[in-house]
Amino acid sequence: TPCWRWLQHQPQRWVRQMTTNHFTWKAAEVDASQTRLAVKANFATTEGVTDCSSAILGNYTSPFEATVVTKLKEAGCAIIGKTNMDEFGMGSYSIHSNHGPCLNPHDETRVAGGSSGGSAVAVALGHADVALGSDTGGSVRLPAAFCGVVGFKPTYGRASRHGMVSYASSFDTPGILAQTVTMASWAVQAMSGHDPLDSTSASLPVPDLTEATAAAKDLSGLTVGVPINANVEELPTRTREAWQQSIAAAEDAGAAIIEVEIDAWPEALPAYYILTAAEASSELARYDGLRFGDVKSPPETNTGYREWYTETRSFGFGAEVKRRILIGSHVLSRNKFDSYYLQAARVRSLLCQQFDQAFEGCDVLILPSAADEAPTLHDVQAQSQDPTLEFVTDVMTVPISMAGLPAISIPSIIKSINNMPLGIQIVGKRFDEATVARVASALEAPLDDKL
Q: Which is more confidently placed, 7 or 131?
């Protein structure tokens, strides 16, 4: 059902209550002395439902909780609710949800960004102090940019993925949304560290990000790289102005500015969607109604099982998830594996090499978090005949995720022509979240001063 029609068909009382529709479950009460934490619906929690905004998981309640949730609780957080998202993290707008679309708090005719839209909205409205999101190809940074908050994605492997429902395991990264760089950095530090339950988590010391954000706002001695490949012709004037302003602010703070080239940048987006679809087709095979999924009485015959399996997945998965499973199955097929999957894997390897080369001459990169403002729900619906148009929304975030680099999105002082938030992204070397937080904090102060 088209998103706007979904809204039309709801009782008016429910429409008034949902407005932005960012929570899928809310706690009855929370200790006021604790930090309020909103948790994306794809993280396992013993409180509330862990349904990934998908019908196939129904009202699934987890018997355990994700490692990052446990660590944030130990740091003084209390869960206030689970947040809406694109089903299984597949989407850029937070509209592909069994709970209906999540809308932008600055303009409820616009989308919140995805797939962690509910977490971004909870922070933007002040309902949560920090919110947990997942970032596969920009799912923390993009909604942060659209909703005017801070979104921090650490290096892949910095924080445990145990208890986070998989979409594409070699990309999925827990991230944090908050109102300030200091708060986001504190939460990232709190949830990071090696976890024996996750073989991909790094056995490296966690840097003191709070100290990094408290440091002087002087960026002398640092070099900021500007990736010229991100300066595409279609970039709107206001987005380009926001980018130029952030570069000027870094230079005023003492940083040296250089241009860098990432030649594989244009190939990153198609390669990403091939690789993630391939991983998703494998990851989601477990939702068959027997191992996971909304279970009905299993049939006694093999023929009956096939029909039941088809019915379970056809009803349980939304259109976007089905589309990506089909794409993934296609690119992994015998006749297509070499020409699609292997080529995309080579692009990923090349991209990692080119980022490493770029960072030989600079400490961080600065670029927009998104090419433009949050689109309207109407415009998004008009794209339904060509779903690949949604993929282009991730053009500024996907290359960073392909290389597994740490990145943060902060609000720009310059807004779009429609007075909507725009985001600026600071990208660092692998496991150098401290420098990312330091630069973001330095740029955040002059931004606030000019508001």
A: 131
- DSSP codes, 8-61: HTS-HHHHHHHTT--EEEE-S---TTSEEEEEETTB--SSS---TT-GGGTT--
Element (H, E) at 331: helix 319-331
Q: How far apart are CA 68 and CA 255, in angstroms?
A: 34
For 205-232, what is each residue's pLDDT tens digit? 999 999 999 887 899 999 999 999 999 8
pLDDT tens digits, 409-446: 999 999 999 999 999 999 999 999 999 999 999 999 55
Encoded tokens for 359: 């960072």
Confidence grade of residue 180 (pLDDT, cut at 50, 70, 90): very high
In this structure, how many other beta carbons lie within 10 angstroms of the beta carbon of residue 432?
19
DSSP of 276-324: HHHHHHHHGGGBSSSSBSS--PPPSSHHHHHHHHHHHHHHHS-HHHHHH
> For residue 291, with 0-12 CB atoms within 10 Å meaning exposed, 13-18 middle and 19 or more buried, which class applies?
exposed
Least confident stretch, 14-28, 108-122, 336-350:
14-28
Catalytic residue list: 40, 115, 139
Instruction: Choose among 301, 299, 300, 328: nearest CA to 311.
Output: 299
Please, what is the end-to-end C-alpha distance for the chain in angstroms? Answer: 40
Residue recorded with tokens 């200091």: 182
The dihedral through the CA atoms of 73, 79, 131, 394 has a sign that is: positive
Residue 10 clears pLDDT 60, i.e. is over it: no
What is the spatial distance between Cα 95 and Cα 380, in angstroms, rounded to a whole number? 9
Confidence of residue 449 (pLDDT cuts 50, 70, 90): very low
pTM above 0.85, yes or no: yes
Backbone angles phi, psi at 151, to 5 degrees: -125, 120
Cα–Cα separations (whole angstroms), residue 163 to 45, 56, 65, 68, 166: 8, 18, 6, 8, 9
At CA 177, angle to CA 400 and CA 444, rounded to 5? Answer: 80
Integer Cα distance of 187 and 190 in angstroms: 5
Question: Can you say whether residue 126 is alpha, beta or left, with left for phi > 0 and alpha for psi between -120 and 50 degrees?
Answer: left
